[in-house]
Every structure is written in C-alpha cells, then in structure tokens.
Design a protein that fits this description.
Length: 154
C-alpha cells in the first residue's frame, strides 16, 4: 500500500452493522484510523447532500431515472471522485459504486451475474449492476475478494 494520509471508502450503503458489506466498511474504517489514516465514507446520503447532489437527486422523481438509479449514482460518484483532489488519497470501493474511476482497491463479496443466475435469471447478458461491477473491476488497480470462488466467478 502506498503512503497515504487519507482514504475514501466509497460504499453506497455506508457503515453500520446491518450486513456484510456495511460491517466490512466499519472494520476498514477502524483499521485505517488505527494506522493514523483519516477516512471519509462516501455513501449515497453523502453524495446526495453535496451541492450538485441536491440538484442531481431531483431526476429520481422520474420513473426512467429511478429504474436506472444504480447507473446514474455510479456516474455521479465517478464524476465526484474525478473532480476531487486525490493527491495521496487511497480510494477503496466495491466495484459497482466506482465503475468509471480507477479505484486503488476494489473489494468484492460476490459476483452479481452468478448470483442472479443462481436466483433463476436465464439471460447470459449482464444486468445493469453486474455490468457496473465488471467495469469497476476492469479499471481497478487491485481487486480483493472474500473467497477464491468469487475471484473465479469475476
């Protein structure tokens, strides 16, 4: 890991003890803080409360945009990160939240396409979220998965 003073944790659900990804964000936050690295959690609520986010969230009143909310939020997140000063800042995310930005570390807990096929999806074409995850892994500098099976699926 390169020398850094600040880390951005980009996970749409934020930090809580509700689920696996949220708990992982909490552990990452605690670990990085113990190493003297300041962390900032970039979640959906944070993004939609920025200046442009308050304007941007009005598009979700319309069905077309609401149906494709993960895509538009991923685009907004990537644009936010591109415009932000990243000097010596470590960016850690799950793949689908930063598909158009080269995150330093992408942490994947599962492959959406394989999960959707397990739940009965018959199409071989990637879904919207699975495609975002694919792009996030494509542009990432380092990919970390929870198991070898997930790595093979990705």
């Amino acid at each position: 890991m390169r020398k850094t003073k600040k880390a951005l944790l980009v996970f749409f659900n934020g930090k809580s003890n509700a689920g696996g990804a949220e708990r992982m964000v909490q552990y990452l936050d605690e670990y990085l803080n113990s190493r003297g690295i300041k962390t900032e959690i970039i979640d959906e609520a944070f993004l939609l409360n920025t200046f442009f986010g308050r304007l941007y969230k009005h598009i979700f009143k319309y069905r077309h945009f609401l149906k494709r909310k993960p895509i538009y939020m991923a685009r907004f997140t990537s644009a936010y990160l591109w415009t932000r000063n990243r000097w010596r800042t470590l960016v850690i995310s799950n793949g689908e939240s930063t598909p158009f930005f080269p995150a330093d570390i992408v942490v994947n807990q599962g492959c959406y396409h394989v999960m959707q096929k397990d739940y009965g999806r018959t199409e071989e074409k990637l879904s919207r979220i699975a495609n975002l995850q694919r792009l996030g892994c494509k542009y990432a500098r380092q990919i970390t998965t929870v198991t070898e099976t997930v790595k093979e699926d990705l």
